[in-house]
Amino acid sequence: MDELLVDSDGNDVKDLLLNSTRSIGRVNFVGLSVDDAKKYVFSDLDVAYAFYNAFGRVNEFSIRKFKVGRNEIDKRILWQTFVCLRQGYRIFRGIDETNKKRAPKSETRCGCVAQMRVHIDVGRDWWYTTLIQNEHNHELIPPTLSRMLRSQ
């Protein structure tokens, strides 16, 4: 058995390893549950981002990169979180709005908790999903407009 194609539990991941953004095309995202999505492993962080972006497109939301954790010694990325575009709230910077020349931008964030976190398996040099939440507290984009999402 090829050790690189087996996860830590001994399960075969050959069909679940996505090694390029083109390989994401073979995943059927329609009806893909959160538990099924967590089974996929990725060859690098860009493939994981493209996977969650495609997952978001099918589930009618846009995504963005959020927090990243790094190794303190060599600054290598150990984990990354991707979130719904509407996650969190805008940071208040203490500027008084009354004497600004420009009108304030509309608020787009609403505290959505949808996210996906991936970690690297340093020994195998692949990325695996440790958390997917797909609960939204806002209206989702209709499928006819999904091509207009910011992350697409």
Distance between the termini: 38 Å
How many discrete domains?
A: 1
Widest β-sheet, arrangement of strands: 1-2-6-5-4-3
Beta fraction = 15-25%
* Coarse structural class: alpha+beta
Shape, per Cα inertia axes: globular
Number of helices: 2
Low-confidence blocks of residues = none
Task: Profile the largest sheet.
Answer: 6 strands, mixed
Q: Looking at the chains present, what oligomeric state does this protein adopt? A: single chain
* Count of strand segments: 6
Q: Nearest-angstrom radius of gyration?
A: 18 Å
Helix content: 10-25%
H/E topology pattern: EHEHEEEE
Describe the structure.
InterPro entries: FAR1_DNA_bnd_dom (IPR004330). This is Protein FAR1-RELATED SEQUENCE 5-like. It contains 2 helices and 6 strands, in the order βαβαββββ. The chain has 152 residues and is of the alpha+beta class. Strands 1-2-6-5-4-3 form a 6-stranded mixed sheet. Strand 1, helix 1 and strand 2 form a beta-alpha-beta unit. The protein is globular, with a radius of gyration of 18 Å. The protein starts with 16 loop residues before the first strand and ends in a 19-residue tail after the last strand.
Give a quick set of tags describing it.
152 residues, alpha+beta, globular
Summed up:
This is Protein FAR1-RELATED SEQUENCE 5-like. By secondary structure, this protein is an alpha+beta fold. It has helices at 34-37, 45-58; strands spanning 17-18, 41-42, 63-70, 77-84, 115-121, 126-133.
